[in-house]
């Protein structure tokens, strides 16, 4: 007579426990689902952001390539593009007197036309995004013959000399209405590489290093004014 009673009591104990177990499992699965869903949405947001950034970078790169193609208009009588160093060399064969930074009158007409060409090309480039140009004007100097002690004694002075030569060019342009510093789309940098720098002439052409280099680097995107 006790067996049926015991079976009934066991059954009465089992089902509530089973229901509690299933409820607990359901709660655990629900929590895991919610957590997984959140991770998925977070990851989805990160992927969308990454895709947006990649798209923006691709558009920026395309814009830069378009600008570089437009800068090919500089090539010709006054400028030559150096693909190795990715810069333009001013073709006007300026020759300074040793240790001097004064531009001789015979070079000025061609230098003025070169400056006008540079400004015209930069102003003619049409872009879909805001763009600013980093324009580097670099002066250079030629070494003395090999073994000449002045190469060592005047090494530091030539940095100042080549800088002053570049400054002379900018001042000459400015005096003739080509003030690049007034153009908010242009950031102008003046430099002097002295006896050094990349892409120098060697040997018999050492004297040709008394020249100017012009480098134009486009910077695409929103820019905050420094004023």
UniProtKB/TrEMBL annotation:
Membrane spanning stretches: 21-40
Keywords per UniProt: Coiled coil, Membrane, Transmembrane, Transmembrane helix
Coiled coil: 44-77
InterPro entries: OmpA-like_sf (IPR036737)
Protein's UniProt name: OmpA-like domain-containing protein
Native source organism of the sequence: Hymenobacter citatus
